[in-house]
Sequence to fold (343 residues):
Amino acid sequence: MEFSLKWLAFEITPRCNLNCIHCRTSASMNLKDKLSFSDITNVIDEISNEFKPVVVLTGGEPLLRKDVFDIADYIKSKGMRVGLATNGTLVDERMALKIKEHVDIVSLSLDGSRAQVHDDFRNVKGAFDATVRAAKILKEIGVDFIINSSFTKRNQHDIENTYRLAKSLGAKAWYMFMIVPTGRAKELRDELIDKEDYYKILKWHFELELKEKEMLVRPTCAPEYYALVDIESRKRGIEFKRRTLKFSTGGAKGCVAGQLIAFIGYDGEVKPCSYFLRSAGNVLESGFLKIWHESKIFKDMRDFGSYNDKCAHCRYINVCGGCRARADAYYGDYMAIDPYCFL
Fold:
């Protein structure tokens, strides 16, 4: 496997107008931006010398930064595609036209099929209506968007209906997130989806993906799914053909943290993925490429033989890999077994 940066989440602000129960950053309007425009463009310059990843501008709520479109334009000037991860509440017709001009694809967060469910997750009344309105506006003016949905026990009953809503809104893809307990989600550990339901949900998703031909569907932070697909396909004697989105990493493996993807936090801290607890270094001190190539954490992510004994000797180590962030969150060891492993 070639370890080349294909996808980068760049958290350009910790500020947010919502108060989501699962936010990895514990974002709020009380926090302040730490990276200047020049800090961000310097990092982009450095990365562009070696890689041309899709760069997703995230937060917090990235649209709260006044220079968000200047940042997007600069990234595109370096030959990279730009994604925007927004909660959608600030997207009106005027903002949508700006997005169309400066951004290649948008991801919207939608955690339920009804306001009662989604707004409970986002801790702001009216968030659901605003996000659905944003999706309709983007669809109308021809901006491609995907929908990300996060689930715990409080909304797992609404998974199928949320998928149906995403499809009806015209999303190019629907990503079903299995929450990792980081940030505010640390307080949700008791209500995270349990291992038995996790397996059932992934089996449901496999059946869905066999039938769904219009919208790309993919479970996220669920690397065991890639093993399950192989197991179920062999059992049924079918050939499973995975489709990919042009803005994704290709969908070739379960956990690609620190292998094909990376995350830069609002404070410059670099991690293998958005949910990883530990920092591998800071771009303001070491530079991104040095961290990518030389940090112990990133090297460990790529040394599959050094994973815990079960993973290291599992036939699906190169297919699944286990969620390294979840292992660390539960056991304090990112090389430990994924607590959701059912293999």
